[in-house]
Write the structure tokens for this entry.
Amino acid sequence: MKIDLKTCTEKELWHYVAVHLKKEGIDTVLVGGAVVSIYTDGAYKSGDLDFVTMDLFTTGLEKAMNKIGFKKQGRHYIHPECHHLFIEFPGGPPLSIGEDTQIKPYEVSVEGEIIKIYSPTDCVKDRLASFIHFNAEECLDQAVLVAKRHPVDIDKIKTWCELERGKEQFEEFLKKIKV
């Protein structure tokens, strides 16, 4: 797969990196703000891609990233041609959103490889987690952007918010998506 690293979108870079890692035997799930960017067709720009590896003991990650030109600098992987986006592996497994560890990511086939991403519902929960726990208003706005563009399971989001002690934040989210 070839992409122009100087101008690629979050979605193009996700496909490129996730397919490469899968071929190297490293299974990942795209999480975080880049998922919002993908689900909003670029209406939101994240600046980075967060991947969670699905294996407890992932070996060869740095070597695999080096093969496609990404070098580790601190906690980030940076490519000399891709100044607008960088890659991060913020932890895992297990894949979780708040206290919920029963996350089932969407599977997408790209070039014959199955790669994974948060579902729109889990993307909304992920953004609301930052709103609930860190009062990050911008994350509420991101959750609203996704919910207005994709079907989400409102009951599942409500139940999750209640378990996270975010009933008021859920009500605020609900008001914004119904406007």
User: Anything to note?
Assistant: The mean pLDDT is 95. DSSP finds seven helices and seven strands in the chain. Residues 120-134 form the longest helix (15 residues).
